[in-house]
Design brief:
alpha/beta, FAD/NAD(P)-binding domain, three-stranded antiparallel beta sheet, 18 strands
Length: 378
């Protein structure tokens, strides 16, 4: 029998920006939160993966469509520099036409962001479990009772009233027996190099993650140790080849996390589809980061399954089908879904997520600055 390491109101598995957002939302509403992260620091692909672009909080047509924690984290990513918010989005008097000329996005420094994430999470009273691997759930009928974690002390368990899977590949949901869908990942490598004049630069190599490159390019599911190992080795091969062609430059920082974008997601109570834009249980808006376009509504039912009463998901392992998965896998979207899941957990009170009053959830999100259709900033 595994000994109990701790008991919380909520346990969040995965310390990327979805998990951080979920933990912050729940802790700020009075929950005791345990946040489990397998790596040495928070931020996931944004920090350990060196994917250092905070994609837009706007629709590309001059309207802001995300607020709340997603906007808070964008500002936080610049706290220890460098980088700055585009000028039209700094000026409250800027017109929609002016803002349409520059999307509300920033490029940040991953190390600076990681330091700021530590600070905000600890200040919120969240209990962090870094360098700790979640291995399996503890099930009791239609509820998760706990999770088994592996750390320096060996195998222990964390118990809670509710749980959020923010692993990025639906690890917790899949091991609990939830229905999941598989994705594919194009090989890519983001890294920092030192240029000929000694400047530090960010570089990305490989096929575009959204699949607009060579359709015959090899794709990686990223769900086995062997597959992830191959992906990591191949991504570093790209860097070596680049170094051989650019002898006046050399690599400075390599990612410590495989830069997999869409490995696996849940089949939720409802799957968000790219052709549908209206949902009665909308809990936020998201713009298309690739092009100016009307914003999509995010349905709450895409953040939970029908199998368990106290399990939510956040981030890129939510139920998003087709091109919607591409839209929902990026930083603003995962922060949005994290805040929704953490807020929902604070309203469960031992009940079932399927029976949660969505109107109460929407009202709580509005109070925290989240933007729905009626309070979108033009």
């Amino acid at each position: 029998m595994d000994s109990v390491l701790a008991t919380h109101d909520l346990v969040v598995v995965g310390g990327g920006l979805a998990g951080v957002s979920a933990s912050l939302a729940a802790a700020r509403r009075g929950l005791s939160v345990g946040l489990v992260e397998k790596g040495p620091y928070l931020g996931g692909l944004a920090t350990m993966g060196l994917v250092a672009i905070y994609l837009p909080l706007c629709d590309g047509e001059g309207r802001q469509v995300l607020g709340g924690i997603a906007e808070e984290l964008l500002h936080l990513s610049l706290k220890y520099g460098p980088g700055q918010i585009p000028e039209p989005w700094q000026d409250p008097a800027a017109t929609q036409k002016q803002r349409a000329q520059a999307r509300y996005r920033v490029t940040f420094n991953p190390a600076s962001f990681a330091l700021a994430l530590d600070e905000i999470v600890l200040a919120s009273g969240i209990t962090l479990y870094l360098d700790t691997l979640c291995t399996e759930p503890i099930l009791e009928d239609r509820r998760l009772k706990g999770v088994i974690v592996e750390g320096r002390e060996g195998r222990r368990s964390l118990h809670a009233d509710s749980f959020i899977d923010a692993t990025g590949d639906a690890l917790l949901a899949q091991r609990a027996g939830c229905k999941c869908a598989l994705g594919q990942n194009w090989l890519s490598s983001w890294f920092y190099y030192v240029g000929a004049r000694g400047e530090l630069q960010l570089k990305s190599l490989g096929a575009p993650a959204h699949g607009t490159g060579d359709p015959t390019a090899k794709k990686y599911p990223g769900l086995t140790s062997g597959d992830v190992t191959t992906y990591l080795l191949e991504s570093r091969r790209l860097v070596r080849e680049w170094c051989q062609e650019n002898t006046d430059k050399y690599p400075a920082i390599l990612p410590t996390l495989a830069q997999l974008r869409t490995p696996r997601r849940i089949e939720g109570a409802l799957t968000m589809e790219p052709q549908r834009r209206e949902y009665e249980d909308k809990v936020g808006l998201i713009g298309d980061w690739r092009r100016p376009a009307p914003a999509y509504q995010v349905p709450f039912r895409s953040l939970y399954t029908l199998e368990f009463d106290n399990l939510l998901v956040a981030g890129r392992c939510m139920a998003a089908g087709g091109d919607a998965w591409e839209i929902m896998r990026v930083i603003p979207a995962v922060a949005l879904t994290g805040e929704v899941a953490g807020t929902a957990a604070s309203l469960l009170a031992g009940g079932s997520v399927q029976n949660l009053d969505v109107r109460s959830l929407q009202e709580e999100l509005r109070k925290s600055g989240a933007l729905l259709d009626e309070n979108r900033k033009d």
